[in-house]
Design brief:
Layout lengths: L1 H18 L7 E3 L1 H12 L4 H10 L9 H14 L7 E11 L6 H11 L2 E5 L5 H15 L19 E12 L10 E8 L2 E19 L4 E7 L5 E8 L5 H7 L2 H7 L6 E10 L1 E8 H7 L26 E10 L3 E2 L19 E3 L4 E7 L5 E7 L3
Parallel strand pairs: 2-3, 4-11, 9-13
Antiparallel strand pairs: 1-15, 2-4, 4-12, 5-6, 6-7, 6-9, 7-8, 8-14, 10-11, 14-15
Length: 377
């Protein structure tokens, strides 16, 4: 699983850099969810198509092959555990044109390793009904948070394989913020622009560290049960977030967030309340990362999925939703007694009133479930 976490983490950082090329835009996606969905497709890929996918997903690091799929099986089972104190709903499904006669061995493997179905639809003569069917399925799987995943006209009779990947997460903070202490404060979008945000406040003991080489504070906010953490990277006032993003690699991220690198200390935390919903048509992004053959009818080799030779990937759509508020991520009503700390010593501050990166990480496997950048309210 360590090798897989490293592969997923490496892919996560490449995606963050790619999706975040426009610095002014907010970014939010689930690398684990995209990795697992693409690895499912990778099971049916052969030849150069498989080699490119392995390279793009950094799976070459984890030895490729069957271990990858068993690794995902273990990871998805752990992350989607029924005992978890958070709610994670992943909607992974491959929708293929029925006339391709998909191999039952491939469908079985999707079920075994990826908790996912391969569903055959009639894109040829019922493309609009197929699109509505897919959207309805995704909405049902994500508690109605992700609707209209596929826009009108995005499915046509030439469509033969769509990979759908949506994820919804809801978790409460281990230490909640008190709503009464949330106030409107300015958020510095850039040197010359400020926008008002609802700024939450919490004074408590958290793990924090300062990384001198990139002039950046790192704060860890645990969710209830401490199975997941939100890790926030906030550069100093005069340092641009771009600098941090350029320096960031998975190896460094792992190094900087190692438990022995973090100090447990009392901190005054200011964090904006925010809601991000992002949708990415992953085709252009994946092509730019080197995964091109899968999308080209003349080059794609998915002979592990169907014995017909002309199958290729028409679309990869990823949509995710996050809401961060006083209770946690995606709200649930809760009340908490507030204790005021009566002491006069100087408490370090972590004030996220300028662009920052955030990651939601599964503590035990160290897998990055979500990556995001909050640039502007």
């Amino acid at each position: 699983m360590d090798m897989l976490s490293e592969a997923n983490g490496t892919f996560a950082i490449s995606l963050l850099k790619k999706l975040g090329e426009d610095s002014s835009k907010n970014v939010f996606f689930s690398p684990m969810s995209i990795s697992s969905a693409l690895s499912m497709v990778f099971m049916g890929a052969k030849g150069n198509t498989a080699a490119q996918m392995s390279q793009t997903l950094s799976l070459s690091k984890s030895g490729g092959g069957g271990d990858v799929h068993q690794g995902f099986q273990a990871l998805l089972t752990e992350v989607n555990s029924a005992e978890a104190r958070y709610l994670l709903r992943t909607a992974n499904r491959l929708f293929g044109e029925a006339s391709y006669g998909f191999l039952s061995s491939f469908k079985d493997s999707c079920r075994t390793f990826y908790q996912a179905e391969m569903e055959e639809l009639d894109f040829l003569s019922a493309c609009e009904q197929s699109r509505e069917h897919i959207n309805h399925w995704v909405a049902g799987r994500t508690e109605g948070k992700i609707v209209d995943l596929l826009s009108p006209g995005s499915v046509d009779p030439g469509t033969n394989l769509i990979l759908v990947n949506a994820i919804y997460f809801k978790g409460n903070w281990d230490k909640q913020f008190n709503k009464e202490q949330t106030t409107e404060r300015p958020f510095k979008v850039s040197k010359n622009e400020k926008k008002p945000v609802q700024m939450m406040f919490k004074k408590s003991t958290f793990q924090m560290t300062y990384i001198g080489e990139i002039f950046t504070k790192i704060l860890v906010l645990p969710y209830v049960g401490r199975e997941l953490n939100m890790i926030i990277m906030l550069p100093d006032e005069n340092i641009s977030l771009k600098t941090v993003e350029t320096e960031l690699t998975y190896e460094k991220f792992t190094e900087w967030t190692r438990p022995d690198m973090l100090d447990e200390e009392e901190v005054e935390v200011f964090l904006p309340r925010f809601k991000l919903e992002a949708e990415y048509d992953m085709k252009a992004v994946l092509c730019s990362l080197g995964m091109t053959d899968a999308f080209e009818q003349s080059k794609a080799d998915f002979s592990g999925m169907s014995s017909r030779g002309d199958l290729y990937l028409s679309k990869v759509v990823h949509k995710s939703f996050v809401e961060v508020n006083e209770e946690g991520t995606e709200a649930a009503a809760a009340t908490a007694a507030v204790m005021m700390l009566r002491c006069a010593r100087i408490v370090p501050r972590f004030c996220a009133d300028r662009p920052f990166l955030f990651f939601i990480q599964h503590s035990k496997s160290r897998s990055v479930l979500f990556c995001g950048r909050f640039s502007s309210p």
